[in-house]
Specification:
By secondary structure, the chain is α+β, with helices and mostly antiparallel strands. Helices cover 29% and strands 31% of the residues. It contains 3 helices and 5 strands. Strand 4 (72-79) and strand 5 (86-94) form a beta hairpin. The longest helix is centred in the N-terminal third of the chain and has 16 residues, at 25-40. It starts with 8 loop residues before the first strand and ends with a helix. The relative contact order is 0.25.
């Protein structure tokens, strides 16, 4: 059984990796799982604003808190051009809205 070709190539930016290094190891595992999911569903999450003329768009998604990890807010950039499309996870932050609840 072959692995399906990804719809997009997804990466975690150096800045987001730096931020993940300050969080529990479970956070990196969760964001890596999201990165893999974004390769197959690159427009997952809530769009922030309209796409630019060339199709670039910022999305926001949330990863639920789990054992050993706070809830996280993740921002990423979808880049449809040039083909193949790309996704860059740019920002990973603890979800402070859940701390106030």
């Amino acid at each position: 059984m072959s692995t399906p070709e990804p719809a997009a190539y997804a990466v975690i930016s150096t800045r987001a990796q730096w931020r993940l290094a300050t969080l529990p190891p479970e956070a990196y595992k969760a964001v890596e799982g999201l990165r893999q999911e974004l390769e197959h569903t690159p427009r997952l999450g809530l769009p922030l604003g309209e796409p630019s003329a060339d199709g670039r768009q910022v999305f926001k998604t949330r990863l639920e808190a789990r054992a050993g990890m706070p809830g996280l807010v993740v921002l990423y950039l979808y880049l449809p051009q040039p083909p193949p499309p790309g996704v860059t996870i740019t920002t990973v932050l603890p979800d402070e809205s859940q701390e106030q609840a």
